[in-house]
Amino acid sequence: MNKSIFLTLILAALTLLALSPQSLANSVTAPTPTDTRLLKLLQQDLDARRAYNPVEASIAGDRRFDHLLPDRSPESINNYLAGVRARLAQVRSIKRDHLSPANRVNADLLEYELSRALSSANFHPEHTPISQQSGPHINLPQLTEQLSFTTPQHYEDYLARLAAVAPYIDRAIANMRAGLEAGRTPPAVVMRDVVNQTSALLTMHAADPKTHPMYSPFLTPNVDPKQKDRAAQTIRAAITPAFTNLRDFLRDEYVPNCRKTIAASDGPDGLPYYEDRAQSYTTTKLTPQQIHSIGLTEVARIRSEMMQTIARSDFPNKDSLKGDELFKAFIHYLRTDPRFYHQTPEELLTGYRDICKRMDAELPKLFGKLPRLPYGVREMPSFIARSAPTAYYYPGSIKNGVSGTFIANTHRLDMRPKYEMIPLALHEAMPGHHLQIALAQELEEEGLPEWRTELGYTAFVEGWGLYSERLGLEVGGPPGGRGFYQNPYDDFGRLSYEMWRAMRLVVDTGMHALGWSRQQAIDYMLENSALSEANIISEVDRYIAWPGQALGYKIGELKIRELRAHAEQQLADKFNIRAFHDTLLAAGAVPLPILETRIDEWIEETK
Questions:
Q1: Segment 202-223 mean pLDDT
Q2: How far is the C-alpha of 79 from the C-alpha of 72, rounded, in Å?
Q3: Number of other CB atoms surrounding residue 128 within 10 Å
Q4: Are 427 and 466 a contacting pair, CB within 8 Å?
Q5: What is the torsional sign of CA 303, 307, 308, 309?
Q6: What is the mean pLDDT of the chain?
Q7: Per residue in 555-577, pLDDT tens?
Q8: pLDDT higher than 80, residue 309
Q9: Cα dihedral sign for 507, 137, 128, 63?
């Protein structure tokens, strides 16, 4: 983050400390001409971003661009960045003292977002559009599950989008070739499954285009038969050949020439690239070495708590072994005893749904405001499950009529232990990602610009998800107990997941900035958690492919816990957990300095 922008964010947020709720309300109801200018600029930026990212626009419920896929040609990128520079100049020209207090924060957030866009563009993300976790082969086949089709125009627009798939893939291939020429590629080791993923997609649907996931909207009986025929023909004649070309390019040209090193700092953009990513994902100025040190401290703390939890278990050898020997034996027990694993995918999914439903009943104890949008749990598509993470969340949309979705990986059930299910469900669904993101989607109804509903700072979003795992200690069980984690093994699973995020600080910075090898990172995680080896390998490869992103979880969670402890200390008997959580989430995702100021303001008002 540019230092001046970082300081501006903090100073602008600090101005809110002296303001009463009434003055904030007045600032919303009586905008100045400068406020109006800023709001128009926010709308211009929202429109430009959605036109540049039409798939994200569709998922958000803006159906103006349903017929398009992203254009990442050099001309399109340059035009978009020219608009970013123009809007950045405009927002910097706005005098902050002519804005309402709320809009001062909006202006600073807009300046921050535009500056981040320009900073990111310097490292040419279009050169690396594919990994084992994202890209056309993963995102396009799952797109229809995030959209609704309720009008004839929706189907017609989707047909146009299907027709755009082949040119979209051709452009991705051209950009990857440009990346090869520039020496800007993912490490080869994390690309080993991408060819198999693409091949699996082709093999599964080779015989009949109507079985292809991209055809799924046309399985509805009342769709025009001519539209159905056009969709099947497009998949057969254009989309399948395009994915075949992609598979062949990846197999024969791209993956063999991807770089053999793993560190982001080994790429053509060097250590500055990784430092930029770390600052972006944490919204802080922490250096890789500082983050690494925080991780080591957290790993030591959590390891101590793990040993205490082992002592509460019925592990047969807990009294005869000590220290590292006990820890290793306990981990081996967890990884190998059948009691800790479901036997069928249906059992696993049912288990997740049970946890989610039980937590739903506890939410009023923790929150005064809950979102309207419901959510569900479903199985991860098989063609990506082998190299995908344990789970992830897809936001829904009230505008689209689509629920949020917690997607669970059922591949290799012997690597999906029961003791990890509670923290994972709380993180991905309620009170984690679904609750936070669904509430953020309602911000426009609370008087904030629609532009604010789409901000997604990793440190905030994933920090909240990790913090939510810990909320399972506070509800879901008898008073004075350990909430959802009554079973010592479940509690160890919670600690293992917290350890997982702490280890990320160590291994992500270790691999990308401090010279660690991939095997060193795998061994470190195997030695310090109960995560299965398959999960750990998948996770380490994720950190290699996505430098810095994994840092946001623990850094964000530590800040949220710090803010809660500060509020509890300052307010004593006046502290209300529901009010604290509502305040934390009321402005949507924000950088951590702004979040800290919001909580400080709430503390002063509550006093």
A1: 90
A2: 11
A3: 18
A4: yes
A5: positive
A6: 92
A7: 999 999 999 999 999 999 999 99
A8: yes
A9: negative
Which residues are within 8 A (CB) of 255 and not within 5 positions of it... i.e. 6 or more apart? 188, 191, 192, 194, 195
Q: How far apart are CA 537 and CA 519, in angstroms?
A: 9
Q: Please name the amino acid found at residue 427.
A: H
Amino acid at 478: P
Residue 593 Cα distances to 107, 119, 440, 577, 606, angstroms: 15, 20, 19, 21, 20
58: which 2 tokens? 């569709």
Q: Other C-beta atoms within 10 Å of 250: how many?
A: 24
| d(C-alpha 52, C-alpha 46), whole Å | 10
Chain Cα centroid distance, residue 523: 25
Query: Are the C-beta atoms of residues 69 and 168 closer than 8 Å to each other?
Result: yes
Alpha-carbon distance of 402 to 59, in angstroms, equals 9
What is the C-alpha separation between 423 and 427, in angstroms, rounded?
6
Looking at residue 125, its amino acid is: P
3-state helix, strand, coil in the chain (%, to 5): 70, 5, 25
Q: How many CB atoms lie within 10 A of CB 389?
A: 16
Give the dihedral of Cα atoms 459, 460, 466, 468; nearest 10 deg: 170
Q: Confidence band (pLDDT; 50, 70, 90) for 29?
A: low
**Helical axes 433-441 vs 421-428, angle rounded to 10°:** 10
Find out whether 1 and 283 touch, Cβ atoms under 8 Å: yes
- Of 130, 232, 107, 243, nearest to 179 (Cα)? 130
User: HSE (CB half, 13 Å, CA atoms) of 541?
Assistant: 21
CA dihedral 350→351→356→361, nearest 10 degrees, is: 100
DSSP line for 516-580: --HHHHHHHHHHH----HHHHHHHHHHHHHSTTTTHHHHHHHHHHHHHHHHHHHHHGGG--HHHH
3-state secondary structure 194-226: HHHHHHHHHHHCCCCHHHCHHHHHHHCCCCCHH
Mean per-residue pLDDT for 500-506? 97
SS3 at position 408: strand
Output the 3-class SS for 438-503. Answer: HHHHCHHHHCCCHHHHHCCCHHHHHHHHHHHHHHCCCCCCCCCCCHHHCCHHHHHHHHHHHHHHHH
159-163, 313-317, 399-403, 511-515: least confident range:
399-403
Length reported for the chain = 607
Instruction: Label residue 45 by pLDDT band (50, 70, 90).
Output: very high
Q: What's the Cα-to-Cα distance from 515 to each of 103, 133, 235, 546, rounded to whole Å?
A: 44, 24, 45, 17
Exposed / middle / buried, residue 2 (Cβ in 10 Å: 0-12, 13-18, 19+): middle
The rounded distance, in Å, linking the Cα atoms of 218 and 215 is: 6
Query: Is the Cβ–Cβ distance between 282 and 551 less than 8 Å?
Result: yes
Phi, psi at residue 259, to the nearest 5°? -65, 150
Strand partners, 391: 408
